[in-house]
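Predict structure. Input: Urease accessory protein UreF, 242 residues.
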Amino acid sequence: MTSSRHGPNVGESVIAAYLLADSRLPSGAYSHSAGLEPAVIAGLQVDGVYPYLISRLQTVGRMETVAAVLAHRRARELGTVTGEHDGGAPGFAALEAALDARTPSAAQREASRRLGRGMLRLAATLKPGDPAVAALKREAPRPHRPVALGVAAHALGVGEAALARLCCYDDAQSVVAAALKLLPIDPMSATAWILDAEPQINAVAGDALHANGLDDLPALSAPLMEHWAEDHTERTRRLFVA
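Output follows.
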């Protein structure tokens, strides 16, 4: 494939990338708040939303973006003629185990798997014959969100670089969409937050493309987010499951 400075590589699907960023998907912003709701319950105010967005991007976002890229590469390997070519990308089961080890909060692991299951269902519906989708269903029927996103992106023709930006953007827009439901925020200001975060989104996405294997999967801690996520599971009155 050839690259263009002004667009995606030949053969990549721009529309599919837009589809995977749609908040109406089973894994979209209508189903979860990217941890913002428990943060708001704990006292986070309007002026804390953008710093929260950036903090997630630099911790959870970095880890998930690398995981999505590695899953995409494994999916590409499984799509070769033999289906068994080993180009160095970790298997799905190994990637899932690595994500579990880097996600100490059981509530966060469960939320990620719930979102991943919805994304895998979407991929299986749209591309039922895709070998990587079938392999992920066998190896991890309830995959983490970034693993399912990477496989779905490959199945739908979304390239690696577009996937990395998509993974970051999807998390950021989930935070902003939830903020509009939870706090008195001007939608124009919320839109500006996404644009303000673009340089950091691009930087995190670019860094993820240099990952070579599980040793490059970040293990970054976000203790308050983990604590808030655990507390959220005990609440009976909430808008979002996570």
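Confidence is low (pLDDT under 50) at residues 1-7, 81-85.
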